[in-house]
Structure to design on (468 residues):
């Protein structure tokens, strides 16, 4: 038999060569068993330690991320509480300046009304007229005997007529005085109602001021509580930020639809007017102009919202003086109005005429023109408020991103720990598999070792018997 062919898997000796090499491999694996075990245990131990170190690193990063998230929540909560508290104080100052600033005038009006009411009341006191002193004398003379002198009778008749006229004049004067008193009392009633209205207005102002002060006190207590006890990143708080973030994204998606509609309205007029213009930056001039006209109301609306302190992405604009901010808002509003009118005119009158089948232009009427112009104006006005959901998405997105980062770091740490445990078990499993591969030499070795131990034990027992 050729040894070379046997060792090189020659033709006709494939199985014999494989059997020989298998025996060589078993002998080699058996001789390298101890070192192989050390190598497998060492590799599994190194891999497990590395994964445990990676898990510890992930846990440390997670703790730092949680601390950073709590700091962000604390800062956001303090900023929100400070903003609410500032708004309450501003409203309180407006109430004091607007309502209580008129208190001296209201007090003067109430004092004047009270003085008028007192004067009219004093003038309306009923004082019955006193009868003249000579009435008793005239009455005594009038009841004299009927047989008196005719001249005396004429005198008495004249006196009776004079007395009747005097009584009638006194009655008329009394009626006039009563009517005047009634008029004064009627005017006093209206003055009472006016005074009651003034006092009711003052009561509403004081009540509103009291409510504002109570609300400011509650917000101040909440602000102090936030300063003493920073908020924790609880599940409810994270869920609220997630809801705000999702809602903001949905609103941004709606504004993206509005921008796409505006761009669709501008597509045909711009291609009709700028189709022969050269390209810039690999894009046609109609596309660039369309995107610019759509982005213009978004940017101008952002400036208006920043100057009006409705958003706070650019705090420098909100920190300007009131007069300067008002002037800038007027300028930006004027630019926005001009841009919206220009886009509406472009959409309305920049489209090419509709061609009929024979090639002649067909008039489409004024209704589609006004409809497209009105739709363009409506979309542009809605695009002015794009920064509101964008700011909300940024503010809530930071908290959602930190929560997601904390969750991912915790997940990676758990996976690293599981992989370290798997690596440790894999080392033991590979050792068992290694011993399973070389089970035949191991069985022979174990049998030989056991026989040698038995022979040694038997020899020792025989020696003991001989010595005894």
């Amino acid at each position: 038999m050729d040894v070379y062919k046997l060792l090189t898997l020659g033709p006709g000796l494939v199985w014999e060569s494989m059997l020989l090499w298998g025996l060589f491999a078993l002998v080699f694996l058996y001789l390298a068993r101890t070192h192989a075990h050390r190598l497998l245990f060492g590799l599994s131990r190194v891999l497990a330690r590395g994964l445990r170190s990676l898990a510890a690193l992930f846990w440390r990063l997670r703790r730092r991320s949680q601390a950073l998230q709590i700091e962000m929540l604390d800062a956001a909560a303090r900023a929100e509480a400070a903003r609410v508290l500032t708004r309450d104080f501003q409203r309180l100052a407006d109430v004091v300046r607007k309502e209580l600033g008129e208190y001296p005038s209201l007090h003067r009006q109430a004092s004047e009304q009270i003085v008028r009411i007192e004067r009219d009341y004093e003038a309306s006191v009923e004082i019955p007229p006193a009868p003249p002193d000579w009435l008793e004398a005239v009455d005594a003379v009038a009841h004299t005997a009927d047989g008196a002198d005719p001249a005396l009778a004429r005198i008495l008749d004249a006196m009776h007529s004079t007395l009747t006229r005097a009584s009638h004049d006194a009655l008329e004067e009394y009626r006039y005085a009563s009517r005047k008193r009634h008029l004064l009392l009627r005017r006093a009633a209206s003055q009472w109602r006016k005074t009651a209205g003034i006092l009711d207005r003052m009561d509403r102002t004081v009540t509103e001021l009291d409510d504002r002060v109570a609300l400011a006190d509650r917000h101040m207590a909440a602000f102090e509580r936030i300063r003493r006890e920073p908020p924790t990143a609880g599940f409810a708080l994270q869920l609220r930020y997630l809801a705000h973030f999702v809602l903001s994204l949905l609103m941004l998606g709606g504004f993206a639809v509005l921008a796409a509609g505006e761009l669709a309205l501008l597509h045909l007029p711009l291609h009709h007017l700028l189709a022969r213009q050269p390209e810039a930056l690999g894009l046609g001039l109609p596309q660039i102009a369309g995107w610019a006209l759509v982005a213009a109301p978004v940017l101008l609306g952002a400036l208006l919202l920043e100057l009006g302190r409705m958003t706070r992405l650019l705090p420098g604009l909100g920190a300007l003086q009131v007069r300067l901010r008002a002037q800038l808002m007027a300028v930006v509003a004027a630019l926005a109005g001009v841009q919206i009118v220009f886009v509406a005119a472009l959409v309305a009158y920049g489209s090419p005429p509709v061609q009929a089948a024979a090639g002649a232009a067909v008039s489409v009427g004024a209704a589609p023109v006004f409809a497209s112009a009105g739709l363009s104006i409506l979309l542009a006005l809605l695009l002015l408020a794009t920064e509101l959901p964008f700011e909300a998405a940024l503010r809530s997105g930071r908290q959602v991103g930190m929560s997601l980062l904390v969750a991912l770091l915790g997940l990676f740490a758990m996976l690293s720990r599981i992989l370290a445990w798997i690596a440790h078990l894999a080392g033991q499993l590979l050792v068992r598999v290694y011993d399973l591969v070389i089970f035949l030499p191991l069985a022979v070795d174990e049998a030989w070792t056991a026989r040698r131990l038995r022979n040694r034990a038997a020899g020792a027992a025989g020696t003991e018997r001989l010595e005894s």
User: Anything to note?
Assistant: Residues 235-352+365-385 form one domain. The radius of gyration is 53 Å. The longest helix spans residues 150-228.
